[in-house]
Description:
By secondary structure, the chain is an alpha/beta fold. It folds into 3 domains: 2-50; 54-125, Roll (Ubiquitin-like (UB roll)), CATH 3.10.20; 128-265, Cell division protein FtsQ/DivIB (Rossmann fold, 3-Layer(aba) Sandwich), CATH 3.40.50.11690. The chain has 6 helices and 11 strands. The strands form 2 sheets. An 8-stranded mixed β-sheet has the order 5-4-6-7-8-9-10-11, covered by helices on one side. Strands 1-3-2 form a 3-stranded mixed β-sheet, covered by helices on one side. A hairpin with a 1-residue loop joins strand 4 and strand 5.
Amino acid sequence: MKRNRRAKNINIASFAKDAAKAMTKKLIGFALVLVVLLAVFMFGKAYIYRSNYFKLNAVETKGTFLDQAGIASINNQLLSMYKGTNVFRLNLKGIAQSLGRSYPDTKEIIARIVLPDKLSVVIKFRKPIAIIKDGKSYPIDEDGFVLPSVEVDSLRDLPFIEGVRIRYDERKGKQSSSKNLRLALELIKEIKRSKGIGEYGIVTIYANDVDELSFTLRNGIEVRIGYENLDERLGLLENTLKDERLALDRIKYIDVRFKDVVIGPK
């Protein structure tokens, strides 16, 4: 019995020693592979950051409402600042933010690398949908952002919004906090969905009092609509305007705030 136990102890010790040697060899092999991969990574990184192959050589800009002169201006500006810079060292977020400060009417700017040596910039500008009259005229987009760089004289057929105050700090390209403006913009959106009303055209939206929210059509008719159930009330208006019995040139206003449409004669 004693001999068997001794033999077993010797076998266990021998097995443990062999297992330790095998594990040591595996660890050494793994370490060597890791060192080789690290060396390859470091040399590859050094090559990428020093190679002329990855130095910025061209800029491509795309953007809504940008003409060729505007595109050329942005391309030349970025090339003068970053040409010859390794593309992997470009601060893409910083470039987008810098362009945003130069073009406050932008909604989104995306800067990305196009290998091996190009910078691609996509600029999405905010589109004016109305003009606020508050002493001066301020173009505004669907989200309520004032667009200071847009020339009002270049805008045609956009409705005016009266009764909304634009704060001084909002005039520099910020979003207006006016609740009345938000409701007026919602009204414009709903009107655009209605082809039957859209063809008449909107001249002015009066948003001084949301309970009395109203707008005038190009034919001079005032529409009193309020701020609730806009889609339902616009449906009533559309059906009223389709009524062939009405002499539109003799109507002063149409009030759709109630269950029964009220028509006021001139």
